[in-house]
Amino acid sequence: MTPLLLPLAAVSLLLLLLLLLSATAATTITTLPSDVSALKSIKSAINPATIPSYSCLASWNFSSDPCSTPHLTHFLCALSCSGDRVTQLTFDRAGYSGTLSPLVSQLTQLTTIDLSDNKLSGPIPTSLFSLPNLQTLNLRSNSFSGTVPPVMPNLKSIETLDISHNLLSGNLPDASSSLTLTRLDLSFNRFTGPIPKLPTNLLELAIKSNSISGVLTKTAFAELTQLEVAELSDNSLAGTIPGWLFLLPAIQQFNLANNGFTGIEILKPANSNLVAVDAGFNKIVGDLSANFTAYPVLSSLSLRYNRLQGSIPEEFTGTKTALRRLFLDGNYLTGMPPKEFFSGKSDVSGSLGDNCLKSCPATSQMCVKSQKPSAICRQANGGKGKPKS
Ligand SMILES: *[C@@H]1O[C@H](CO)[C@@H](O)[C@H](O)[C@H]1NC(C)=O
Ligand SMILES: *[C@@H]1O[C@H](CO)[C@@H](O)[C@H](O)[C@H]1NC(C)=O
């Protein structure tokens, strides 16, 4: 061997090694270290006693690389990756308790977080609401407490935000800067204060069962041209339910039951997809507006347990309307109910009981609940009394 050949052989061996290394590197993904440390922190914030052996989190074993495939024994579920980044964090419903590590926001490529139906507690890390690529945030049915940021300006891609069924308090967040949010569920928490300006592209809004107060304002609702379903029941909302609300162009269902509303205004629509309105269990006074019957597909209407007076307009009989379910029980309605209700030709069911109606035939299902005693009716109707039947 010439002295030159030895270094040459060494160089070619080195080249071969490098080639081999780059070949293996092309098939083995190494998760970005900050994603790995976030995942470690997320797992260690879960109470180990609540990680059953069959669960997804039990398979998170950091002796393997989280994003490397195939997953044979480790990292079997609860996360997905794209390349070297974690894109989805989707816990199984194993009953995990513990907290959510704030390091979750290091996972900046996350598009989905779904930790629903577990027992996680403590605050929701504020940084979660700034994840730039997040499309779905579902923390439903846990025990998260504390407040959420009053303003959420950084929700750039969010489509579904569901933090319902937790113990959250403080004001409802203002997410109105989001143009992508279509489904917002803040129900069954302890939120207080007024309804903030709502994101304009919402399809579904649910804030049921909180302690939301104040009146329904145009600032909050007027631009919601896509809103189909609004669930506002079981709060402390007050004032008159404004007529423009039912004229929102896409609205189909409005649940306003169990609040402190004192009036309801119903305007005639040019066109409407409104199918169901529930404004029962409020303190609504006034006459029952015949304008309800101008809504061409309105099939379910409840105004039960309010303080309505006056007679039931003939238009309600269902022959010219879509009405199928009509609950007017528990008011102070007077006069003769339209007899078409009882003719056998009517498709309307529901209740007219517990009013001040005259001749509501007990043979009809709608009249099974009896009318109020005349003394109560006389008092409620300014001494005019219950007309003799
Ligand atoms: C993680 O996996 C390694 C190798 O398969 C195993 O030796 C170790 O016990 C595992 N650790 C846990 C906490 O399961
Ligand atoms: C019925 O609707 C019309 C037109 O929208 C409105 O002017 C009127 O006040 C409404 N009447 C009742 C009783 O609600």
How is this structure best described in words?
The chain has 389 residues and is of the alpha/beta class. It has a domain at 284-389: Leucine-rich repeat, LRR (right-handed beta-alpha superhelix) (Alpha-Beta Horseshoe), CATH 3.80.10. 12% of the residues lie in helices and 22% in strands. It has four helices and 25 strands. It has a 13-stranded mixed sheet, with no helix packed on it. An eight-stranded parallel sheet has the order 3-5-7-9-11-13-15-17, with no helix packed on it. A two-stranded parallel ribbon has the order 19-21. A hairpin with a 2-residue loop joins strand 1 and strand 2 (85-90). Bound molecules: 2-acetamido-2-deoxy-beta-D-glucopyranose (2 copies). One 2-acetamido-2-deoxy-beta-D-glucopyranose binds at residues 61, 63. One 2-acetamido-2-deoxy-beta-D-glucopyranose binds at residues 266-268, 289, 291.
Order of helices and strands: HHEEEEEEEEEEEEEHEEEEEEEEEEEEH
**Which architecture of the domain at 284-389 does the CATH hierarchy give at level 2?**
Alpha-Beta Horseshoe
Q: Which runs of at least 5 residues are low in confidence (pLDDT < 50)?
A: 18-26, 385-389
Strand content: 15-25%
Q: How far do the termini sit from each other?
A: 126 Å
Report the structural category.
Answer: alpha/beta
Bound molecules: 2-acetamido-2-deoxy-beta-D-glucopyranose
Cross-sheet strand order for the largest sheet: 1-2-4-6-8-10-12-14-16-18-20-22-24
Largest sheet: 13 strands, mixed
Over the alpha carbons, how many angstroms does the gyration radius reach? 30 Å
Count, helices = 4
**The CATH topology of the domain at 284-389 is what?**
Leucine-rich repeat, LRR (right-handed beta-alpha superhelix)
Helix content: 10-25%
CATH classification, class level of the domain at 284-389? Alpha Beta
User: What shape does the CA trace take?
Assistant: elongated
Global mean pLDDT = 90
The overall strand count is 25
